[in-house]
Amino acid sequence: MAGIDSTVPSPTHTVAPAPAASGASAVPPPHAPGALLQDRLAGWVSDLTTLHELTERLARTDALGEALQELLHAGAALVGARRGLVVLEPADGLGPDTTIGLGLARADLGHIETVPRSSLSYGRILDGLPGGDGEIAEPDLFAEEGLDPRHREVAARLGYAASYALPLSTEAAGRLGAAVWLYDEPAEPTERQRHLVGLYTRYATEYLARLLEVERTRACMKTMAEELLPSRLPRMAGVQLAARHRTGPRGGGDWYDALPLPDAALGLAVGSVTGSGPSAIAAMGRLRASLRAYAVMEGEDPVAVLSDLELLLRLTEPARSATALFAYCEPSLRKITLAGAGHTPPLLIGDRRTEFVETSVSAPLGMLACWEAPSVELTAEAGETVLLYTDGLLHRTGDPTDRAFARLHAAAASVPRALRHDPDAVVDHVLRTVLPGGLDVADSEEDVVLLAARFE
């Protein structure tokens, strides 16, 4: 769109001729050089303005699904269609594979997928069949003698009679997918419409390729973080456990752990490593693995566990800091001994009380030359739940710290009595109440971890 392509056919829109001056004998002929040039310039300006507006709308999308929807809407406007679908199926096989429709319900897309791919325009493009290396126009499906019977049946059922398809491919990323627009009556885009939608689709495909890489990076970060966290929580007599973990698009360093210890004890830990991305995730994995080792050797002394962890962090990663909380639990006695390093205080939830556990003020790991803080002991009543969490839960609210703590306390106190016997229900209620309206699953720079232990 940097310049005007002189090979583009004349636009269909014209400029009305100026009224003839008084005394003029005749209107200039319609093909006069000046009028023709003015008509072409007006058409080019109109087309460039339209393309600029559509690409601006596309650039404002920041999610792959949203961008695919915008591609369908813009393409439908450019080719004069009412419905369509885009099939994302990257040639490298790394996914994600998806199909999104415009004016087509999920059931409609299901019907279309029952048609043999070789008889569908997008199937010929995606499978590299003859004639599938460029645009495919089918101006009158029912007039085609070789139309697949199933395709004819589905087209009649869904009420479309023509289609126009374009490949979504770039030199760098290769083939990403295909877009198809459907007409209710026999029709096909004009030569100028094809030119405009071709320009738009080439730009849109480059943009989709960038969003695809972002989507894959997010999925990779999420998988890495999940693999470094417990695959399942231990089952132990006298205690029930539940955990929730929400990570940001870049992947963060929030983590949790629950591990059986000698003498029928249980170790609970939550923590957060500074930073985000692969380095933070790797540091989180190393810190969690080290804490497990220290907990097995000296778990009954949480201060010693965190002191050893702080020394390791300071020696191996001096540029990084972390917060952590470790609790040594004796389920048979409902006794908990805990220590924290710059971490948020646990929350005790029961029928007769909902209160934050008073912990001593301490610095995060890696911030001081020698970390030390006293431990705290408490005894939970039967049926009470101890909730550990990371500060991402508070930060995602967007509220000041004191108000975020108040919101968390109110959410815990409002857990229905009928749900308090189930720690999974407790953490879900707290998460949805503190972060309503989908904030718990929305993209955020802040990770969230909740770990609940209900004592019987």
Automatic annotation (TrEMBL):
Gene3D superfamilies: 3.30.450.40, PPM-type phosphatase domain. It holds the Pfam family SpoIIE. Residues 1-32 are annotated as: Disordered. SMART domains: PP2C_SIG (SM00331). It comes from Streptomyces regalis. Residues 236-455 form the PPM-type phosphatase domain. Residues 15-26 have a biased composition (Low complexity). This is Phosphatase. The keyword Hydrolase applies. Keywords: Hydrolase. The keyword Hydrolase applies. It comes from the Bacteria. GO terms for molecular function: phosphatase activity.
